[in-house]
Write a structure and sequence with these properties.
The structure is a homotetramer. By secondary structure, the first copy, chain A, is of the alpha/beta class. Chain A is built from eleven helices and 15 strands. In chain A, strands 8, 9, 10, 11, 12, 13, 14 and 15 form an eight-stranded mixed beta sheet that branches. In chain A, strands 3-2-1-4-5-7-6 form a seven-stranded parallel beta sheet, sandwiched between helices. In chain A, helix 1 crosses helix 10 and helix 10 crosses helix 11. The longest helix of chain A is centred in the middle third of the chain and has 17 residues. The interface between A and C is large, with 43 and 44 residues.
Chain lengths: 339, 339, 339, 339
């Protein structure tokens, strides 16, 4: 059985840990962290009390124990048992972990979208380039924003060819739990124009000609992207909807039926009893899909906390060559996660 | 088996419907409503697809069907099968329902805290006055704010006697889904001083001398109350904590451990996989419990969407005399709801 | 002397009234309204206590007087003295006013961007089409969003030719005073894609090929636009900056110097003692101006409450043929307003 | 002529600088700071371009000059010309300034409410203890929250005697310009109960028995206080209103007339063309003033950015013994500031 460790139990780490546990073909070997935090505590106590907790560093053992958590040793001591580590530590720590732990011990690792591109040879999206990750030692699962763009642009490109894309991102100021982050009442432009999001998409899909601009706004629920593309072939609005609908990780939501904002879609996730009201799919507002000649427009919502979780599971399968075929992996992941 | 109908499937109605379904000693006979809405749709489709949907009025049959929902007749046609109706319709509609449907048909009904006090003889809180609802035909389960105050003040009064209470409420501007409500960046005082919340507590606990003031602020997650009381007997902070801890519907949360705001406690509910990240308990910040002489202070959080759900279940049991003893009912409710 | 009346003293009306009063070549003959409101009260008391207050309708006389305001008669009784009425009443009322008061009495009128396009033959922006308004009876000064787009696109088009423009608007949820408006914590897409803003620009500049998408966010200070254009001629970033700088109603703001958000620019307006911290200019963030081949990008801020004020003054001059030359009018307006 | 220097040109410093300049009996000798910031730049350029700019430290000369600002030397070089320094530097810096600059050079200094109480023997409020500051070398003007409480409680105490006060503060998350501060969507309790605000009032009015609780909310405009007091003598609501009205620094605002929230009162300040839409007065909502037996309740708004400005001017007069009588000083300050 393949043993997976989650190093860093925060927003992403806790979700990936629980997602790994739901898969039939992998084992959540351990969590690993350096200090007690409320999320680690709650998750450990409620769902993962039978899962090992490791200290990511020697010195972290005491900190975790003083916080009342039981520690099952230091990460490196267990390294021979571990097939792959999902590193969900803050940017900066990830590089040190690679250098000090993963490389010397020859253990595979997945990094997050916040990591520097140079940390891994492959930037990953399940739909767009699953094959590139097959057998790789280090893979970076791209950020939430990039993931939602890859999913939608990949489908459009695959069916009609995408000549050009212009995407304007309206980013949330902070996650729901991050109550020291602002702004309270302001719009903050990202002054790097074009923004880094376009090049990040190109790490996964180098052939897409994409430019992005971005602002930050006072909300916690989700990012929203306004997308303008030019396609090669002809397509109707129905064609585009059909293409999006056939992707299991794109969800068409109807504003007219009442799902008319990030809040209303989040309420739907609550009413569906999605854990943490997460939304692993990118949600495209159906009514916004518009075709004018070769131009295709739409607006979608990206749930920043959870959208990369299924991609991370797929990346594990690709890197450990547990599944050669992307659709097979996507299918398994989706079923286990209830997508 | 006792048959319960939920009339009005919105914020409260959908939660009570699911809660009734989880009880072993009652049956969710039907939902009833007048128009399709996104919540009704989602809940029906995902969890209650085997539950009847009734039209609350003759004319609503068409509206519901045009919205694509299957209708199993009009509420009044089923009235002989129904033991109790939980009315969660907007204020104003509730009174018409009582007059036109419940009274003529001699069916028991529960109303919500938003209803006028005169709608029922008993205003209800499970801890404080369960017995008053035994066998009653009409009961009003008090509002979220009043419920949290009744729970905490009841325990304090029961153990040490409460001479006087002064509570200042910081109310959320709207629920998460209510994205047309403000304020975006303002604090709005309730200019009725003292506010109506104090007298509403006295409907349940007439002996408590309580005054309240209130403001509305730009947040969606929860109300927060700052409480100042004067008690009769002596008590230490540890005594007060112990009294709160023994109540199953009061939860002590530690700011020091990271649960330091309404957002952080909501994140805990998410991490605990509470459905919709609801919190049925009133959450008292442990560190805020302070005793100075006869004065006892604390600050607590009231989850406006879900805190009255367990009280509603208990009210059903009391009104139908399914359980004479409040603790027995509370125990059953809590167990079924995972409190 | 030309006599101007402001009909409807709200967000726009009060600002235009004070702006008219500052012009040397026109007279603020009267304010006109139907009911007392806090803004009318404050403005009348503090700055316009020597200005007539008229009742827009017969029946409004009593309402205003009961509110403690002195009324100098009904609007129509004074109509022979009036050269032009600036109608800043809510959409719907404006049309009735035109039909019942302005047309029968043959008095010129200016309408606002919220009015239906059909209300006037000319949609107006001072830079782009001043000449079209010369001698006209009815003119619509376009909305805040359209005004800022006309100003910037006109300058770019005039210097380099604009082939195409794609603009994504991030709209404020409500004005600072509108504390019943939301959203509190949500992003709401405008599901009409492309949005109405593009066609509205084309009312002023029919030759511009522009498409727009829009969302609404929880802030009160300003709208922000992310602009992508394709120009005909070659231009460097310095060229674009120079072109924007030469326009008196475009202000380049430097994020690096600390004016990095709508809040920071608003603070600058406060520190400059701009009345109401208004900003009549469209504020382009200097660092966002980017040229890549024929593509020109930037992000700008539009102060929704005040940006149309100078255009309204210029429209008065054009309609009354007080000034044939747009730059002469703009110059007078700017000087009087301190732009 | 008395020469005043403002050390630290931020939220408070810039306002006090302009206020000093408006007084007839004092001279704004210089601003002093350590680095260029957008506020310093804007204020210097627009209103204080003829005022010296000093470097607070030797090493700051270069930083300021590199930022394009002209420097007229180091603060200590001018110390013999200076009668009093208003220190509006961040907490921590103030203490070093006192030790390294003010004490060795024997120059009087005023500190802000954020400073530690120990920094000065006298904590100051113009109404409550003007006399205590007469001739003093170091005075701390208390914080915005404390200032508004001192003003209202002093008047109440002076007329009717205040036995006890319980105040619950709803604090703004950050100032309008502070767009990196949160929370975006959360209420954060101050877990020190009672909060430090009560003891801070007692620094000024030791005889008042006051306890305070506090929370922080997502708004930028103002703090709001809910006040419950018990008085000694009898008073009617009209009596209390009369007492508040006679104080020039308390403003009664009517919610019924439309000034029903912090946003609506801020709009009034905008409509009155108050610079920066500041409000130097504490604004008591008239309708909230309620008397029940010996209990007096009300809710007021505290403009955190500007309320301490007039007190700082009065403190200067007291410390330099320019005016023995508080009412004389208050009168001069008010007149110069247009209160």
């Amino acid at each position: 059985m393949t043993n997976i460790v989650i190093n860093g139990v925060g927003t992403i780490g806790k979700r990936v840990a629980e997602a790994v546990k739901k898969q039939e073909d992998m084992t959540l070997y351990a969590l690993s962290d350096v200090a007690p935090n409320p999320e680690l505590r709650t998750v450990k106590e409620n769902f993962l009390n039978d899962t090992r907790l490791l200290a990511s560093t020697e010195s972290a053992v005491d900190d975790l124990q003083e916080g009342g958590l039981e520690v099952d040793g230091v990460l490196e001591e267990h390294i021979d048992e571990i097939d792959l580590i999902v590193d969900a530590t803050p940017s900066g720590i990830d590089e040190k972990n690679k250098e000090n732990i993963y490389e010397p011990n020859d253990v595979k690792a997945i990094f997050q979208g916040g990591s520097d591109k140079s940390i891994a040879d492959v930037s990953f999206n399940a739909d767009a380039n699953y094959e590139d990750a097959l057998g790789e030692d280090y893979v970076r699962v791209v950020s939430c924003n990039t993931t939602s763009l890859c999913r939608t642009l990949y489908e459009l490109d695959d069916s009609f060819g995408v000549n050009e894309a212009n995407v304007n991102l309206v980013r949330r100021g902070g996650d729901p739990k991050e109550d020291s982050r602002g702004p309270i009442n302001s719009i903050i432009p990202v002054t790097d124009v074009p923004s880094h999001h376009g090049p990040d998409v190109q790490e996964v899909m180098p052939e897409i000609d994409i430019t992005t601009l971005a602002v930050k706004v006072p909300t916690t629920l989700a990012h929203v992207h306004m997308v303008t593309t030019e396609i090669e072939d002809d397509a109707t609005e129905e064609d585009v909807k059909r293409v999006f609908e056939k992707s299991t990780r794109i969800s068409l939501e109807s504003a007219e039926e009442g799902f008319s904002s990030t809040a209303k879609i989040t309420e739907k996730m609550r009413d569906m009893h999605r854990e943490r009201n997460d939304m692993n799919e990118v949600a495209v507002w159906e009514e916004t899909i518009t075709v004018e000649g070769k131009k295709v427009y739409w607006i979608h919502m990206t749930h920043q906390e959870s959208i990369v979780v299924p991609e991370t599971i797929d990346a594990i399968r690709a890197m450990l060559e547990m599944e050669e075929d992307k659709l097979a992996s996507i299918g398994k992941t989706n079923e286990a996660l209830g997508i």
